[in-house]
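Hi V.,

You were right to ask for the full record rather than a summary. Here it is.
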Amino acid sequence: MDGRKRRARSEFLWGWGMILPAIVGLIILNIIPIFQTIYQSFFKTGAFGRSYIFIGAQNYQKLIQDKDVFLATINTFQFVLLEVPVSIILALILAVLLNRPMKGRSAFRTIIFVPMVAAPAAVAMVWKWLLNSKFGLVNHFLNSIGLSSVDWLSDSKVALLSVAIVGIWSILGYNMVLFLAGDRGAESRASAYADTGLSVLQTCVPAKQPRIWSGNRCLSSRDHHADYGIPDVGAEKVGLLRVKEADSI
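Predicted structure:
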């Protein structure tokens, strides 16, 4: 009995030890700044955060009256509706394909996950040059097949799509890994269903659906919150700022 208690206590301490750095980082980098931002929103600040003057809810009144805020909200919801479903569907397809025995499976998984660990500044610079209206490789390819160039980052009609493509490319690997974990966890359930004599479709769907649905809810929530921090790839930011004509790169 004492051995079980010691083992349970050891697992408890190891568990908290593993998640403690993430919790500390979450508190310092996310939770505390949120409350600081709410507090500062009731003040008018000078240069470099000096001369705090309490103004109550005046900032919120200006926010409601600003037409750009409404446009930014619409653009944000459009981006979420475009980026989240596509990234989840593509990640699910890749997870199913890359969970099967095949040559180079680990290499493909690594290649798809690499954008997730890349620095946001590096991702923005790479896509800024890829989508450049004059020297970008994307327009170069379009010209090579007889199509005209597109101002991916300057035209407000396609800027939202351009930023959504970058967001999907950046998060696809992370979503795929979560789906892979759920899919692998469902293998034991699938083997149990296989002994019932059902078809492949009847076996896979009920065995994998709970795991996939759980991962899907996690990804939907995570992506929805992450979409408010959109990488700047040269166009106006689509989430908290409106999309408008930008200078050619």
